[in-house]
Amino acid sequence: MAMGCAAVVAALVGATPAVAAARAPVARGAVFLVPATAPASSSGNTVRMAYVAPGGGMHGGVLSIRVPPGWTRPQHRTARRPGYVSAGGGSLRIAGRTIVLRHLDLCGGCSVVVEFADARAPAAGRSVFLARSALTGDGPRAALAIQPGVTLTGPAGAAHRTGAAAVPLGDYAGSVDPSGIAAFGSATGTHPTLATDY
Questions:
Q1: In what order do the strands lie in the sheet with 146-147?
Q2: H-only helix segments in the chain
Q3: Residue 167: phi, psi to the nearest 5?
Q4: By percentage, how much of the chain surpasses pLDDT 90?
Q5: Rounded to an integer, what distance in angstroms lies between the CA atom of residue 167 and that of residue 163?
Q6: Per-residue pLDDT tens for 143-195?
Q7: pTM for this entry
Q8: Closest Cα to residue 133, out of 27, 55, 48?
Q9: C-beta separation of 152 from 126 below 8 A
Q10: Cis omega (within 30 of 0) on the bond before 155?
Q11: How far apart are CA 120 and CA 84, in angstroms?
Q12: Is the peptide bond prior to 35 cis by the omega test (within 30 degrees of 0)?
């Protein structure tokens, strides 16, 4: 899995920490997600989420990602069961629908990948995976300015794109802070949208 995760991170955020840091200009970092689309009500989906630390890095920090309602509930007990979660770093725990990574140490632009496997998707709409971070263990945890999401396509069983090449990096619901959205769009050459647009 490590090789696959490394390939995902490289394809999404660039091969070097310097490139990744340039694509995560917002103060709390950014999360990139593969795939950007999934068939409505489909099962067997694997969602990979790559968190990229901001320029100052993360020191004993915390990352949380909430799996939206309608998706399989995440779990970390049995790898062969739906919704299994694994991570490339930190101390992993599951709290209800929230995936939490603690004790993360990342340099500026460095990444950690969370994998949510064999999951069933909801029937319709766009699912935002709400991500929050604290850059130090005792710091406040707050929502990232740019939030990743999966758009459900229908009818169920329709062809859908997978892999890093299918990810439109502008397809993220953000916060209501236009400056963060503008900074991300400028750095990546994309056109992110505000959460209020959904």
A1: 146-147, 173-174, 193-194
A2: 2-13, 17-22, 178-188
A3: -85, 115
A4: 56
A5: 7
A6: 998 889 999 998 644 434 443 333 333 333 343 445 455 555 554 444 544 44
A7: 0.70
A8: 27
A9: yes
A10: yes
A11: 12
A12: yes
